Amino acid sequence: MQADLKTIQSRHVFATTVLVAVTAQNTLGVQDALALPPALIDAQFAALADDLAIRACKTGMLADVPTVQAVVANLKRYDFGPLVVDPVMIAKGGAPLLTEDAIAVVRTALFPLATLVTPNLPEAEKLAEMPITNRAAMQRAATVLMTLGPKNVMIKGGHLDDDDSASDYVRLADGSAFWLPAKRIATRRTHGTGDTLSACITAELAKGRPLASAIRTGKAYVEAAIREGIIVGHGHGPLNHWAYPEAANED
């Protein structure tokens, strides 16, 4: 949530939140987590809808089945613009952030609402129910994920071991597809990478930018935030959300 807020603010978009779970965590790992009651989730959605014109939104950690169901119901109830689904399943340190039974609800109920889904490789393997060990498999998995209902798919390739790049694969609703190559950066300071990417894309969509351009800006933003690292904590440190230059070409 903190990475989301920092990222969206840095892209000159006002961000607000619906908290669905809280965690006790640091750069060393997640020590505890608690899902919030669905009634409180409903109240937060209603409060925002009563006061603000939300132009785009994203999801992050959704914890369990009741939480996913509450989020889906509210996204159907209110028009919060394009939806980016970051299917967060496992924390950087390995702690589970989505129960096994909730994965099925994400696939069947949340994905059909999504403008874009942004799984990393382990998440894409779970959701597509297939191993992904190379680029060809990433392309096949994107095809499988599209059948679950999201309009567009971005599979992040940072976990792929077949080369020294961190290339992502994007397949769009119009049938086009492209790779986003990036040189792999040797660092442990990658806490919040997925959150940051999806938040940047969401911010750009809120500005009304085309999805492909928003995705490219998101990739460039994350790459800069990792490359220009900051020293915080003793484990998987956070990204540098100040790194991407404000005057960067957004085309």
What does this structure look like?
- The protein has 251 residues and is α/β, with parallel strands linked by helices.
- The chain has one domain: UDP-N-acetylmuramoyl-L-alanine:D-glutamate ligase, CATH 3.40.1190.20.
- It contains 8 helices and 8 strands.
- The strands form 2 sheets. Strands 3-4-5-6-7-8 form a 6-stranded mixed β-sheet, with helices on both faces. Strands 1-2 form a two-stranded antiparallel ribbon.
- Helix 4 links the parallel strand 4 and strand 5.
- The longest helix is centred in the last third of the chain and has 17 residues.
- The two termini are 27 Å apart.
- The model has no long low-confidence stretch (mean pLDDT 93).
Overall pLDDT, averaged?
A: 93
The CATH topology assignment is: UDP-N-acetylmuramoyl-L-alanine:D-glutamate ligase
Helix/strand-derived category reads alpha/beta
Largest sheet: 6 strands, mixed
**What's the overall geometry?**
globular
Q: Count of DSSP E strands?
A: 8
Q: Report the uncertain regions.
A: none
What's the end-to-end separation, in Å? 27 Å
Please work out how many helical segments DSSP would assign: 8
How do the helices and strands follow one another from N- to C-terminus?
HEEHEHEHEHHEEEHH
Strand content: 5-15%
CATH class: Alpha Beta
Strand order of the largest sheet: 3-4-5-6-7-8
* Rg over C-alpha atoms, rounded to the nearest angstrom: 17 Å
CATH level-four homologous superfamily name: Ribokinase
Q: Give the CATH architecture.
A: 3-Layer(aba) Sandwich
Number of domains: 1
